[in-house]
Amino acid sequence: MGTKSRILAFTILFLACINTGIPKSKTAQAASSEIHYFDDPETLSTYCTEGNARACTVLGARYQQGRSLPKNLSSATEYYEKACNLGSPKSCFDFAELQFKHNNQRVEATAIFEKLCNQTDMMMACQYASSIYERGVDDIPANAEKSKAYWAHGKEVRYLPISLSMDETIDQKISRTINNCEQDKLLAACDTLGSIYKEGVKHIKADPEKSEAYFMKACRQNSFPSCFKIDEDKAGGLKRVEKLCVNENNVAACILVASKYKNGAAGVPVSRAKANEYYDKACLLGHDKSCLEAFKK
User: Fold this and answer.
1) 229 lies in a domain?
2) Which of 190, 215, 217, 246 is most buried, most CB within 10 Å of its CB?
3) Residue 61 contacts residue 37 (beta carbons within 8 Å)
Protein backbone atom coordinates (compact mmCIF):
# COMPACT_ATOMS: atom_id res chain seq x y z
CA MET A 1 0.00 0.00 0.00
CA GLY A 2 1.40 3.42 -0.96
CA THR A 3 1.95 6.27 1.47
CA LYS A 4 -1.08 8.27 0.30
CA SER A 5 -3.32 5.19 0.48
CA ARG A 6 -2.11 4.44 4.01
CA ILE A 7 -2.82 8.02 5.09
CA LEU A 8 -6.31 7.92 3.54
CA ALA A 9 -7.11 4.55 5.11
CA PHE A 10 -5.89 5.63 8.52
CA THR A 11 -7.75 8.95 8.33
CA ILE A 12 -11.03 7.21 7.51
CA LEU A 13 -10.58 4.79 10.38
CA PHE A 14 -9.47 7.58 12.71
CA LEU A 15 -12.54 9.70 11.93
CA ALA A 16 -14.83 6.73 12.26
CA CYS A 17 -13.49 6.00 15.74
CA ILE A 18 -13.83 9.64 16.75
CA ASN A 19 -17.40 10.04 15.53
CA THR A 20 -18.93 6.68 16.37
CA GLY A 21 -16.57 4.88 18.71
CA ILE A 22 -16.07 1.12 18.81
CA PRO A 23 -18.42 -0.85 21.04
CA LYS A 24 -16.79 -2.37 24.10
CA SER A 25 -17.87 -5.44 26.01
CA LYS A 26 -19.28 -4.89 29.49
CA THR A 27 -16.29 -6.78 30.87
CA ALA A 28 -13.84 -4.43 29.21
CA GLN A 29 -15.75 -1.34 30.28
CA ALA A 30 -16.00 -2.48 33.90
CA ALA A 31 -12.33 -3.37 34.06
CA SER A 32 -10.96 -0.15 32.60
CA SER A 33 -10.22 1.50 35.95
CA GLU A 34 -8.83 -1.75 37.34
CA ILE A 35 -6.13 -2.25 34.70
CA HIS A 36 -2.60 -1.64 35.92
CA TYR A 37 0.77 -1.49 34.21
CA PHE A 38 2.07 -4.74 35.71
CA ASP A 39 -1.03 -6.90 35.13
CA ASP A 40 -0.13 -10.17 33.42
CA PRO A 41 0.07 -9.97 29.59
CA GLU A 42 -2.62 -12.59 29.01
CA THR A 43 -5.18 -10.63 31.01
CA LEU A 44 -4.23 -7.41 29.24
CA SER A 45 -4.42 -9.11 25.85
CA THR A 46 -7.92 -10.39 26.63
CA TYR A 47 -9.17 -6.96 27.65
CA CYS A 48 -7.48 -5.35 24.64
CA THR A 49 -9.18 -7.81 22.29
CA GLU A 50 -12.51 -7.01 23.94
CA GLY A 51 -12.02 -3.33 23.15
CA ASN A 52 -10.35 -1.86 26.21
CA ALA A 53 -8.06 0.96 25.08
CA ARG A 54 -6.12 1.16 28.35
CA ALA A 55 -5.18 -2.53 28.16
CA CYS A 56 -3.91 -2.05 24.60
CA THR A 57 -1.95 1.03 25.68
CA VAL A 58 -0.29 -0.81 28.58
CA LEU A 59 0.74 -3.67 26.28
CA GLY A 60 2.16 -1.16 23.80
CA ALA A 61 4.18 0.54 26.54
CA ARG A 62 5.52 -2.75 27.89
CA TYR A 63 6.62 -3.94 24.46
CA GLN A 64 8.21 -0.55 23.77
CA GLN A 65 10.12 -0.50 27.06
CA GLY A 66 10.83 -4.22 27.33
CA ARG A 67 9.23 -4.46 30.78
CA SER A 68 8.31 -8.10 31.59
CA LEU A 69 7.88 -8.61 27.86
CA PRO A 70 10.60 -8.76 25.20
CA LYS A 71 11.23 -5.35 23.67
CA ASN A 72 9.45 -5.33 20.32
CA LEU A 73 8.70 -2.03 18.59
CA SER A 74 6.53 -3.72 15.96
CA SER A 75 4.27 -5.14 18.66
CA ALA A 76 4.32 -1.80 20.50
CA THR A 77 3.22 -0.05 17.31
CA GLU A 78 0.43 -2.59 16.80
CA TYR A 79 -1.01 -2.18 20.29
CA TYR A 80 -0.71 1.62 20.29
CA GLU A 81 -2.57 1.68 16.97
CA LYS A 82 -5.32 -0.52 18.45
CA ALA A 83 -5.67 1.81 21.43
CA CYS A 84 -5.68 4.81 19.11
CA ASN A 85 -8.46 3.28 17.03
CA LEU A 86 -10.38 2.77 20.27
CA GLY A 87 -10.23 6.53 20.87
CA SER A 88 -7.20 7.08 23.14
CA PRO A 89 -5.46 10.36 22.15
CA LYS A 90 -2.28 9.59 24.11
CA SER A 91 -2.00 6.23 22.33
CA CYS A 92 -2.46 7.97 18.99
CA PHE A 93 0.51 10.14 19.92
CA ASP A 94 2.61 7.13 20.96
CA PHE A 95 1.67 5.35 17.72
CA ALA A 96 2.57 8.40 15.64
CA GLU A 97 5.88 8.84 17.47
CA LEU A 98 6.90 5.24 16.69
CA GLN A 99 5.76 5.64 13.09
CA PHE A 100 7.87 8.78 12.80
CA LYS A 101 11.02 7.68 14.62
CA HIS A 102 11.27 3.97 13.92
CA ASN A 103 8.94 2.93 11.10
CA ASN A 104 9.77 5.62 8.51
CA GLN A 105 6.09 6.55 8.15
CA ARG A 106 6.70 10.24 8.72
CA VAL A 107 3.98 11.62 6.47
CA GLU A 108 1.34 9.49 8.17
CA ALA A 109 2.72 10.40 11.60
CA THR A 110 2.67 14.12 10.80
CA ALA A 111 -1.01 13.92 9.86
CA ILE A 112 -1.75 12.37 13.26
CA PHE A 113 0.29 14.97 15.16
CA GLU A 114 -1.61 17.75 13.37
CA LYS A 115 -4.99 16.17 14.13
CA LEU A 116 -4.12 15.70 17.81
CA CYS A 117 -2.94 19.30 18.09
CA ASN A 118 -5.96 20.77 16.33
CA GLN A 119 -8.63 18.51 17.81
CA THR A 120 -7.42 17.69 21.33
CA ASP A 121 -5.06 20.61 22.10
CA MET A 122 -2.22 18.20 22.91
CA MET A 123 0.89 20.29 23.50
CA MET A 124 3.33 17.49 22.60
CA ALA A 125 1.62 16.92 19.26
CA CYS A 126 1.70 20.65 18.50
CA GLN A 127 5.43 20.75 19.24
CA TYR A 128 6.08 17.79 16.95
CA ALA A 129 4.09 19.37 14.13
CA SER A 130 5.91 22.67 14.61
CA SER A 131 9.31 20.99 14.51
CA ILE A 132 8.44 19.01 11.37
CA TYR A 133 7.27 22.08 9.46
CA GLU A 134 10.23 24.10 10.69
CA ARG A 135 12.70 22.00 8.71
CA GLY A 136 10.58 19.80 6.43
CA VAL A 137 10.63 15.99 6.41
CA ASP A 138 10.47 13.52 3.51
CA ASP A 139 7.60 14.67 1.26
CA ILE A 140 6.56 17.41 3.69
CA PRO A 141 8.15 20.74 2.71
CA ALA A 142 9.20 23.26 5.34
CA ASN A 143 6.47 25.77 6.12
CA ALA A 144 7.47 28.57 8.48
CA GLU A 145 3.91 29.86 8.85
CA LYS A 146 2.56 26.44 9.91
CA SER A 147 5.53 25.88 12.20
CA LYS A 148 4.92 29.15 14.04
CA ALA A 149 1.17 28.51 14.27
CA TYR A 150 1.60 25.06 15.79
CA TRP A 151 4.24 26.35 18.20
CA ALA A 152 1.94 29.18 19.32
CA HIS A 153 -0.97 26.76 19.75
CA GLY A 154 1.17 24.39 21.81
CA LYS A 155 2.35 27.23 24.02
CA GLU A 156 -1.21 28.43 24.62
CA VAL A 157 -2.52 25.00 25.66
CA ARG A 158 0.61 23.77 27.49
CA TYR A 159 -1.10 23.57 30.87
CA LEU A 160 -4.16 21.63 29.72
CA PRO A 161 -4.26 17.95 30.73
CA ILE A 162 -4.18 15.36 27.96
CA SER A 163 -7.64 14.46 26.67
CA LEU A 164 -9.15 11.15 27.71
CA SER A 165 -11.06 10.95 24.44
CA MET A 166 -10.89 12.58 21.04
CA ASP A 167 -14.04 14.62 21.65
CA GLU A 168 -13.36 15.80 25.23
CA THR A 169 -13.87 19.57 25.36
CA ILE A 170 -11.74 22.07 27.27
CA ASP A 171 -14.61 22.61 29.73
CA GLN A 172 -14.76 18.86 30.35
CA LYS A 173 -11.00 18.77 30.91
CA ILE A 174 -11.26 21.59 33.43
CA SER A 175 -14.17 19.90 35.21
CA ARG A 176 -12.25 16.60 35.39
CA THR A 177 -9.15 18.35 36.72
CA ILE A 178 -11.17 20.25 39.36
CA ASN A 179 -12.68 16.97 40.51
CA ASN A 180 -9.22 15.36 40.74
CA CYS A 181 -7.92 18.35 42.71
CA GLU A 182 -10.83 18.63 45.13
CA GLN A 183 -10.86 14.91 45.84
CA ASP A 184 -7.05 14.74 46.11
CA LYS A 185 -6.96 12.12 43.36
CA LEU A 186 -4.01 13.60 41.55
CA LEU A 187 -1.26 15.73 43.10
CA ALA A 188 -0.60 17.65 39.88
CA ALA A 189 -4.26 18.55 39.32
CA CYS A 190 -4.35 21.55 41.67
CA ASP A 191 -1.06 22.88 40.31
CA THR A 192 -2.39 22.49 36.76
CA LEU A 193 -5.47 24.53 37.62
CA GLY A 194 -3.31 27.19 39.24
CA SER A 195 -1.34 27.53 36.02
CA ILE A 196 -4.46 27.54 33.82
CA TYR A 197 -6.15 30.31 35.83
CA LYS A 198 -2.92 32.27 36.16
CA GLU A 199 -2.63 32.87 32.41
CA GLY A 200 -5.97 31.77 30.94
CA VAL A 201 -6.39 29.28 28.09
CA LYS A 202 -8.57 29.95 25.07
CA HIS A 203 -12.01 30.94 26.45
CA ILE A 204 -10.96 30.20 30.05
CA LYS A 205 -10.11 33.66 31.41
CA ALA A 206 -7.29 34.35 33.82
CA ASP A 207 -8.45 34.53 37.42
CA PRO A 208 -5.67 35.48 39.92
CA GLU A 209 -7.73 34.59 42.99
CA LYS A 210 -8.57 31.12 41.67
CA SER A 211 -4.99 30.65 40.56
CA GLU A 212 -3.57 31.39 44.01
CA ALA A 213 -6.21 29.26 45.74
CA TYR A 214 -5.27 26.25 43.62
CA PHE A 215 -1.53 26.85 44.07
CA MET A 216 -2.11 27.07 47.84
CA LYS A 217 -4.04 23.77 47.82
CA ALA A 218 -1.27 22.12 45.80
CA CYS A 219 1.37 23.54 48.16
CA ARG A 220 -0.57 22.07 51.08
CA GLN A 221 -0.24 18.72 49.29
CA ASN A 222 3.55 19.26 49.43
CA SER A 223 3.89 20.24 45.79
CA PHE A 224 7.23 22.08 45.76
CA PRO A 225 6.65 23.89 42.41
CA SER A 226 3.28 25.19 43.62
CA CYS A 227 4.81 26.67 46.77
CA PHE A 228 7.33 28.53 44.62
CA LYS A 229 4.53 29.84 42.40
CA ILE A 230 2.69 31.30 45.40
CA ASP A 231 5.89 33.10 46.33
CA GLU A 232 6.27 34.47 42.81
CA ASP A 233 2.72 35.57 42.21
CA LYS A 234 2.07 38.36 44.71
CA ALA A 235 3.77 40.65 47.18
CA GLY A 236 3.77 38.94 50.52
CA GLY A 237 3.70 35.49 48.91
CA LEU A 238 6.61 34.31 51.05
CA LYS A 239 4.74 35.29 54.22
CA ARG A 240 1.80 33.12 53.18
CA VAL A 241 4.15 30.21 52.53
CA GLU A 242 5.81 30.78 55.93
CA LYS A 243 2.39 30.41 57.58
CA LEU A 244 1.88 27.10 55.79
CA CYS A 245 5.16 25.91 57.26
CA VAL A 246 4.69 27.21 60.80
CA ASN A 247 0.94 26.76 61.26
CA GLU A 248 0.25 23.72 59.07
CA ASN A 249 3.56 21.82 59.25
CA ASN A 250 3.89 21.83 55.46
CA VAL A 251 7.27 20.36 54.47
CA ALA A 252 7.42 21.88 50.99
CA ALA A 253 6.66 25.33 52.38
CA CYS A 254 9.37 25.02 55.05
CA ILE A 255 11.97 24.02 52.46
CA LEU A 256 11.00 26.89 50.16
CA VAL A 257 11.31 29.46 52.94
CA ALA A 258 14.62 27.95 54.06
CA SER A 259 16.03 28.18 50.53
CA LYS A 260 14.98 31.82 50.28
CA TYR A 261 16.83 32.73 53.47
CA LYS A 262 19.80 30.59 52.46
CA ASN A 263 20.29 32.21 49.04
CA GLY A 264 18.56 35.54 49.47
CA ALA A 265 15.81 36.92 47.22
CA ALA A 266 14.01 40.15 46.49
CA GLY A 267 13.10 41.58 49.89
CA VAL A 268 14.63 38.57 51.66
CA PRO A 269 18.13 39.10 53.09
CA VAL A 270 20.52 36.15 53.35
CA SER A 271 20.32 34.63 56.82
CA ARG A 272 21.85 31.25 57.49
CA ALA A 273 20.34 31.25 60.97
CA LYS A 274 16.81 31.76 59.61
CA ALA A 275 17.44 29.19 56.86
CA ASN A 276 18.54 26.63 59.46
CA GLU A 277 15.45 27.35 61.53
CA TYR A 278 13.21 26.31 58.65
CA TYR A 279 15.45 23.42 57.57
CA ASP A 280 15.25 22.16 61.15
CA LYS A 281 11.46 22.37 60.98
CA ALA A 282 11.44 20.40 57.71
CA CYS A 283 13.83 17.87 59.24
CA LEU A 284 11.48 17.30 62.18
CA LEU A 285 8.70 16.76 59.66
CA GLY A 286 10.68 13.93 58.11
CA HIS A 287 12.67 15.50 55.24
CA ASP A 288 16.12 13.87 55.49
CA LYS A 289 18.01 16.32 53.24
CA SER A 290 16.83 19.21 55.39
CA CYS A 291 18.39 17.51 58.40
CA LEU A 292 21.78 17.74 56.70
CA GLU A 293 21.20 21.37 55.74
CA ALA A 294 20.14 22.29 59.27
CA PHE A 295 23.64 21.57 60.61
CA LYS A 296 25.42 23.80 58.13
CA LYS A 297 26.65 27.21 59.17
Assistant:
1) no
2) 215
3) yes
Do 100 and 18 share a domain, yes or no? Answer: yes
SS3 label, residue 104: coil
The reply to whether 163 falls in a domain is no
Residue 241 has what pLDDT?
82
Domain that residue 33 falls in = 3-156
Length of the chain: 297
Hey, what long-range contacts does 63-70 have (CB within 8 A, 24 or more apart)? 64/94, 64/98, 67/37, 68/38, 68/41, 69/41
Q: What is the rounded distance in angstroms from the CA atom of residue 36 to the CA atom of residue 290? A: 35
Mean pLDDT of 231-246: 72
Band of pLDDT at residue 12, cut at 50, 70 and 90:
very low
| Centroid of chain to Cα 45 | 26
Instruction: State whether 213 and 239 are in the same domain.
Output: no
- Predicted confidence band of residue 219 (pLDDT cuts 50, 70, 90): confident
Residue 70, domain CATH: 1.25.40.10
Q: Are 260 and 268 in contact (CB under 8 A)?
A: yes
Distance CA 235, CA 166 (A): 41
Among 5-9, 33-37, 272-276, which is the least confidently predicted range?
A: 5-9
Cα 48 off chain centre by: 24
201 in any annotated domain: yes
Instruction: Tell me whether residue 162 is in a domain.
Output: no
Overall domain count for the chain: 3
Residue 214 is predicted with a pLDDT of 92
Q: Where are the alpha helices (DSSP H) in 158-284?
A: 170-182, 187-199, 208-220, 224-233, 237-248, 251-263, 272-284
